[in-house]
């Protein structure tokens, strides 16, 4: 179970990083505000999922 949660956590963190970089590249190229807002929402969701998975992983490792 710990392995599965660790893999999911890594994927969520990589997804967050990817969306963050996509937003930065789009900002540098001058993309529209609607797309930037959508990417920001995705980033926040992925960060929340990462944090929740991290908490689950810590709880699994404790007990």
From TrEMBL:
Source organism, top-level taxon: Bacteria
NCBIfam families in alphabetical order: twin_helix (NF033233)
Pfam families xrefs: HIG_1_N
InterPro entries assigned to the protein according to its UniProt record, in alphabetical order: Hypoxia_induced_domain
Transmembrane in keyword set: yes
Keyword field: Membrane, Transmembrane, Transmembrane helix
TM regions (residue ranges): 40-60
HIG1 domain: residues covered: 1-63
Organism the protein comes from: Roseomonas haemaphysalidis
Protein's name in the database: Twin transmembrane helix small protein
């Amino acid at each position: 179970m710990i392995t599965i949660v660790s893999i999911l956590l890594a994927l969520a963190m990589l997804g967050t990083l990817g969306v963050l970089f996509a937003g930065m590249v789009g900002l540098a190229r001058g993309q529209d505000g609607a797309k930037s807002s959508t990417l920001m929402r995705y980033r926040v969701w992925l960060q929340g999922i990462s944090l929740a998975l991290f908490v689950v992983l810590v709880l699994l490792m404790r007990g």
